[in-house]
Amino acid sequence: MNHFIDTFFNAQQILATWPAILKGVVVTLEIAALVVVTGITAGIGLAVLRWLFGRWIKWPLLVFVDVARAVPPLVLVLLAYFGLPSLGVDISGFAVIWLVLSAVLTAFVEEIVWAGLISVKKGQREAARSTGLTEVQALLYVVLPQALRLAVPPLTNRTIAITKNTALGTVIGVPEIINQATTAVSFSGNATPLMMGAFAYLVLFIPIIGFGRWVEGRFAWRRH
Amino acid sequence: MDILFQQFFNLDIMSKALPLILEGLKTTLLICLVVIPLGILGGILVAVGSMAKSAVARRALALAVDLMRALPPLVLLILIYSGLPFLGLRLSPLAAVSIAFFLNNAAYYGEVIRAGIESVPNGQWEAARSTGLRADQTFVWVVLPQALRNVLPDLISNTVEVVKLTSLASVVSLQEMLYSADMARSLTFNNSPVVLAAIIYFVMLWPVVRIVSRLENASAK
Amino acid sequence: MQSAASFLPSRAPGAAAEIQSVEPLLRIRDVSKKFGSLEVLKSINVDVSPGELVFLIGPSGSGKSTLLRCCNRLEEATSGSIRFDGSEVLDPKLDVNALRRRIGMVFQSFNLYPHMTALSNVTLALRKVLGKSGPESKTIAMAALERVGLAHKASAYPAELSGGQQQRVAIARGLALEPKMMLFDEPTSALDPELVGSVLATMRSMREAGMTMLVVSHEMRFAREAADRVVFMEGGVVVEQGPPAQIFGPDAQPRTRAFVSNEDR
């Protein structure tokens, strides 16, 4: 038992490693925040463009959306990280993770918001247009708010799932939580940093998961 | 433009890497064959457990599920693969992957299936019980089939995620498709093998992704 | 097949102009509409004079709703002319949003915005189309809600209102823009029978206030007592039009009589 505690919850190790883990937490939070803002904004933007100019952008849009949803994010990460430099684009691991996860989130958000948009009854748009609102006004004030309300639960879940992929950064050396933890393990030969890393993720994500549950319950209740 | 083709769509390199990548694909499919049924089974157990009479059991299960949902799958995998040896348990990569993904998938499938069970009206239980079926018979023959059907789009899209998840196994040196492709990349200093792997993933999953979109948009209307 | 106009000796376009000294507010001439190869409107001629309440009746699929929706360009007519208040509705260069603020529309399914209060439902177009200030649009909207008897429900959400109340808010939404005319597309068909009366009462008071209205509806009794003119359509053509006494009387066309007696049962 003592050996177990010594290996996984070693006080000395905790003292020695926590600054590194904390740095990792900051990096993870930075990437997560950037991904959430970029992905949700771009995803809603694309759904709006598809609504307004569907004919023109539907096919290129669907190719992007389907590739981003069907190819594992780690494949895209490796492609961007090793591929872009060979094209002369100098890009950091941090930027790769941000861009790839944002692209993936964008694709999912676009599909979720689109499903919301087409589920709003046709009469809503017609009623808005019949009072003289333009197509853009009808979308922004009448259709989109209703679509987003429908989209909130799946959006929340998908955003959480993709944000957790910040951990993929460790594969290309981004100093986020799990990267800091595994580095510390290899130096110390002790599993304590791993437990600290896992603990850091739990502290970060359990409140978010709780928030997701709350959103789901609240909006499911609203619909009845 | 030339360099783009040279670096990403180099047919010569692709054809040389193909046997290696197909070998990896076999392992990828093997992982899928292990983790998808295990995950669904675990998910059913989680869903049944979340209907337990004991409030303590329900709370404990909900907490476990939340823990699994809060840990990124890669973190869970590294924890099991690199952590357990410190306890003297040295797992093969495939075993580590199976355990990690079972824990992760059971939590996610569990959420989906629970929603499905809740969507089956209570009258179905009552009708089946009134014909003399036991509770377990009612669950297996009446409730579960309807539940799975009601959440089919979510089940399928979760399964797509599981297939994509198998690429993480490359991180613990399990020689599945991405591992093989990345190895070929580092040997040839060329990205085409990874592009080829991406294409194979896309070809496998694209029809499924389209079906999910179709189902979701149909239910939205 | 005879042209529709030949069925109406007393109300043919030329004759109508003699009888009605005022220029019609809405003048539908030779309007046709095709969906692919399906011709749902065949050379329709209908006039609506200022202050008139005109009923469009007919079996489902007769084209009456399509005709109504062509009047504010929710549907595009294939050919013909619709003149409204001095401008050509079918002119591709026409500003449809400007047109629509002068023509109100009420839908069968109310189409209130569920995420907004009754008041906000009414003020949205006042603010965004007419560019009025918040307080001003609120004053106008409250007056409109007052006219339909629902000022006390201003802060209620659509889900908290009965069907009849929702439809009256939808009417207020149209009225608030002070349109010259209002279109009603089966305004009472989605309502429980006991709620129909309140909506019809609102329409009656609008008529007394001089509003011009074109109504698609199955409320035959209301048509009989409140309409100035009734237009009977079937299979995409106007079979007959005239005052209620004519349409509901013994001398109506056989097809009209068959439809009316069937509806009255």
TrEMBL record, chain A:
GO MF annotations, alphabetized: transmembrane transporter activity
UniProt similarity note: Belongs to the binding-protein-dependent transport system permease family. HisMQ subfamily.
GO cellular component: ATP-binding cassette (ABC) transporter complex
Keyword Cell membrane: yes
Domain annotation ABC transmembrane type-1: ranges: 25-212
Spans traversing the lipid bilayer: 20-49, 61-84, 96-120, 194-215
Domain of life: Bacteria
Protein localization: Cell inner membrane; Cell membrane
Keyword Transmembrane: yes
Origin species: Methylobacterium terricola
Endpoints of the signal sequence: none
GO biological process: amino acid transport
Topology of the protein relative to the lipid bilayer: Multi-pass membrane protein
UniProt keywords, alphabetically: Amino-acid transport, Cell membrane, Membrane, Transmembrane, Transmembrane helix, Transport
NCBIfam families: HEQRo_perm_3TM (TIGR01726)
Entry protein name: Amino acid ABC transporter permease
TrEMBL record, chain B:
Gene Ontology annotations of biological process type: amino acid transport
Highest taxon in the source lineage: Bacteria
UniProt xrefs under Pfam families: BPD_transp_1 (PF00528)
TM regions (residue ranges): 28-48, 60-84, 194-212
Annotated localization: Cell inner membrane; Cell membrane
Membrane topology: Multi-pass membrane protein
GO annotations of cellular component type: ATP-binding cassette (ABC) transporter complex
Keywords: Amino-acid transport, Cell membrane, Membrane, Transmembrane, Transmembrane helix, Transport
Start and end residues of each ABC transmembrane type-1 domain: 25-213
Principal location listed in the UniProt entry: membrane
Gene Ontology molecular function: any one: transmembrane transporter activity
Gene3D superfamilies noted in UniProt: MetI-like (1.10.3720.10)
Family: Belongs to the binding-protein-dependent transport system permease family. HisMQ subfamily.
Biological role stated in the UniProt entry: Part of the binding-protein-dependent transport system for glutamine; probably responsible for the translocation of the substrate across the membrane.
Protein name: Amino acid ABC transporter permease
Lineage of producing organism: Bacteria, Pseudomonadati, Pseudomonadota, Alphaproteobacteria, Hyphomicrobiales
Automatic annotation (TrEMBL), chain C:
Keywords linked to the UniProt accession: Amino-acid transport, ATP-binding, Cell membrane, Membrane, Nucleotide-binding, Transport
Sequence intervals crossing the membrane: none
Keyword Secreted part of the UniProt annotation: no
Every ABC transporter domain range: 26-260
CDD domains, alphabetized: ABC_HisP_GlnQ
Gene3D superfamilies assigned to the protein according to its UniProt record, in alphabetical order: P-loop containing nucleotide triphosphate hydrolases
SMART domains in alphabetical order: AAA
Gene Ontology CC: one annotated term: plasma membrane
GO molecular function, a single term: ATP binding
Membrane topology label: Peripheral membrane protein
Subcellular location as annotated: Cell membrane
Similarity section: Belongs to the ABC transporter superfamily.
Protein name, as recorded: Amino acid ABC transporter ATP-binding protein
Organism per entry: Methylobacterium terricola
